[in-house]
Amino acid sequence: MKKVKVGLVQMSCTKDKQENLDKAILKVREAAAKGAQIVCLQELFTSLYFCDVEDYDNFDLAESIPGPSTDALQVIAKELGVVIIASLFEKRAEGLYHNTTAVLDADGSYLGKYRKMHIPDDPAYYEKFYFTPGDLGYKVFQTRFAKIGILICWDQWYPEASRITALMGADIMFYPTAIGWATDQDEETNKDQYDAWQTIQRSHAVANGVPVVSVNRVGFEQDGAMKFWGGSFATNAQGRILYLGSHDKEETEVVELNLSDSDFYRKHWPFLRDRRIDSYQPITKRYIDED
Known about the structure:
single chain, 24% helix, 28% strand, globular, Carbon-nitrogen hydrolase
């Protein structure tokens, strides 16, 4: 029976990039002290969520990957013997930027990066202004403790992305994310939005027989217009909630996942076995009509 302890770091951020990185490192230490072997940080954890506005000055927040933040985190990963999943604003070249997650193994080595594939462009989430869609495809990373799949925030809504990641052999799917409520919304809308967000990700666990770990930020940003809703969670391979974070507090939680459950659930609910892959060609169309 293979078990892995994962750490979820749900925190608020400030305008100070170094302060956020230092806080994240303290949270990684806290998670490791609680027994975590793999620690996932939230999306773009070194800054406020800057995509609420289209501002050229925000490009100054970007950095190379590998680069300063991964250098600092590699030292911590090696010292603590933990895998770190670090979501960062990547400057790839002059004028070319990505929303990217780096994976650092427990010996401090840099395993590679995943670039966010699905990029939103909604009110207060103007990511297409900043981020070029990922061109590395979907990725899994063989770490010391498990083979992990990484997807980022807006990727959460797409079963195609989770399916491909699972088919590549991911033992666990991690989703660093940054999503919240407009503070002028009513509570019923808030609940509906959070429930939809959680439900779609739990469905990825059910459909693929893989545990899902989703880590979101908390706190008021955008001059109080946005409350990032926290609610980080971890499921088993059947979508059962093992941990659920609060909507308004920083939390560092460690959850034990039984990776052997995937084999059990895939035998008893054989969704992967019963897939009609010969019938799926139309999925590559934008829409199935006469054009």
